[in-house]
Amino acid sequence: MQKGFPRHYDDLNDHLEKLDKAGLLWTVDHEINKDRHLHPFVRWGYVGDVGTVVSTNPKRAFLFTNVTDSKGRKYKGDCDVMVGGTAGSPRIYAASLGIDDAGDDFTALSQKVYEKWVHAFSNPIPAVEIPSEEAPVHEVIITGDELKGGEGKGLAALPVPNNTPGWDTAPYFSAGLWITKDLDTGVENISQNRCSLKASDRMTAMWLIQTNGGAHNNWVKYKERGEKMPVALIVGAPPALQVIGPQKTPENLNDLDVAGGLVGAPYRKVRCKTVPLWAPADAQIIIEGWIDPAKLEMEAPFGESYGNMSVEEYNHSITVTAITRRRQAIITSMISQMAPSESGVIKQLNYSAVMLNHLKDTLYIRQVKDVALHGPMIGVSRLTVIVLEKNTPRTEVWRALSGATTFMRSVGKITVAVDEDVNPNNVEEVLWAIAYRTDLMKSVKIEDYQANGHAPKLRDREWEAKIMIDATMHYPMPPVALPTKEIMEEARDLWLEAGLPPVAPRWKWYGYNLGDWTDEWTKCAERAVAGDWLLNGIRTASLVDADAVGGPTAGVPRKGVVQYNEKTGEVEYPPGFPLRDDFSTDV
């Protein structure tokens, strides 16, 4: 432990100041309801030209300094909310990584990002422990009975926004970073996954199995050994740590040390108060808790980056044991759901850099010049474009294509190799190359056994193939993951009242039902918009045995949806509860 150890990197407050000076931040002091209007307000910055990965992108981050909720609570002076401040645009993402970039050459930025990550992986810097009394995130410590009591207590005292109002059933931390620890190595993993509020001292977590993430792998070890699992959620991480969450980092490295490699200085860490984990001392908020690996709780619906709602499933239930925070904190939230979105930009640049590193420096395909994962509408993991030097040997072309589709198990459903004269970030140019530079009998391969990954669950088999299939609906699908039309129209009025430039949508801008939905989830969503999400937490409070439903991410069948009776306050369970959906996923 080193007392008086100084910070040599930006925290979130520094980052926002720099974004403001660069003209990349809108500070909104207009009163905004976090349950109904906050995310739809930001969405208007993504449905027009802003949000597209182009050189003229004017996208800014948002800082809301006058947040309210549907119950009339006011959070001004206690907690602000930031959205889009990590990767609202490629230029904002560059600022998060400490890269000086004017945003006028996306290919050049991709190369800078690639070099930054390669350096950090090769040169991690161990974090340094500082005492609790010097940690900004320990200015306020809330434990025990202070967490209990429902409204206005614990988690319910934080202005966590609804992400997809009209469909989501509770406020979600969409930019929170989970800290988990490998039982064998002691290595701490930091991953960005959604987190739903259930009660003032209870929340749920969804750790995606299909991407082979560290959080899930760590949970498996705790479950096998029958031990309770400590976890901590970082809210408002320093920017260079925030970008770690969606990234695929080496499993033998502590992610806090990788963040040190990104900034060229050691991060400051502090011991958590109620769990045996380290946390970043310069975060805004840390939420500590424990998981019983033998139990799961119903979680979701939630609007996902692949453009549909993720419907109700069984996931991890966390008993909160402490909330530590700054006296005046900033909650970070990520605009996700239907691309274009902030989550699309951060994954596009993160994944592209790591895949480029894999192809060039692991597979030694030296002719690879660039990798681009397309974002708008399809959410990054479905279309990969590889740029190769002119006259690359055919064997190296196919090694690159194969390597790109196997590096990450669920990335690369459609993968295209193009020449240097084709802009991989321009879909029209890529389609032009496909149309006129291929002999389809020789130039196309369709292979089976690709993981479904972060996408709507398949209902006809456990995996899918690489390359295209009929993209029309084959069965009812969950709603389009955007706020409802009514709420989006209300948010547009607020946007104009706040004096922001007019916006005109170019993509889908409101969500609608595609058939796979229930009336109960609509009621849950209406309660969340009204600020009554605590009632939804009561609805799901009966935990289920993990093995009984087949483990995390097992779906709740429509006939097995639990009902909350608002007249009696009773929870009504279907016969045979808990029921599991009859489709499965290759894990």
UniProtKB/TrEMBL annotation:
Classification via Pfam families: UbiD, UbiD_C
Signal sequence extent: none
One GO biological process term: ubiquinone biosynthetic process
3-octaprenyl-4-hydroxybenzoate carboxy-lyase-like C-terminal domain location: 351-471
A GO-annotated cellular component: cytosol
Source organism superkingdom: Bacteria
Residues annotated as domain 3-octaprenyl-4-hydroxybenzoate carboxy-lyase-like Rift-related: 132-335
Family annotation (InterPro entries): UbiD (IPR002830), UbiD-like_C (IPR049381), UbiD_Rift_dom (IPR048304)
GO molecular function: 4-hydroxy-3-polyprenylbenzoate decarboxylase activity
SUPFAM superfamilies: FMN-binding split barrel, UbiD C-terminal domain-like
Record-given protein name: UbiD family decarboxylase
